[in-house]
Amino acid sequence: MEPEDSINVTGGPLAICGTDPVTGFFRDGQCNTCAADQGSHTVCAVMTAEFLAYSKYVGNDLSTPRPEYGFAGLKPGDPWCLCAGRFMQAADEGCAPQVHLAATHRRALDIVPLEVLRAHATKTD
């Protein structure tokens, strides 16, 4: 599995999304992707309590620790490479978290329009 070029949604170099916890399809801290990444883990999102509750409700529990996988569970404020489809679903429902545009891979644009990502951009982007 070779990652695609590390380019963000604005055409610049892909920034680190998060290393505590380590995120990314390749667990490299970046929202890098490849053909094997069927979930398109390309949106660097900052978790909120509202989004974590929503995600759990729709069947993707990101907050419960899973020690058998070395996963401590996410808490509000944690950055995470989120599936683009899950982000879009949350945006449609009005509970999408903020995103770091510089750390969101350009492949997210296959699923999420840039104007939707910009509407949820962090103040630092």
Automatic annotation (TrEMBL):
InterPro entries hit by this protein: DUF2237
Source organism phylogeny: Bacteria, Pseudomonadati, Pseudomonadota, Alphaproteobacteria, Rhodobacterales
Pfam families, alphabetized: DUF2237 (PF09996)
Name assigned to this protein: DUF2237 family protein
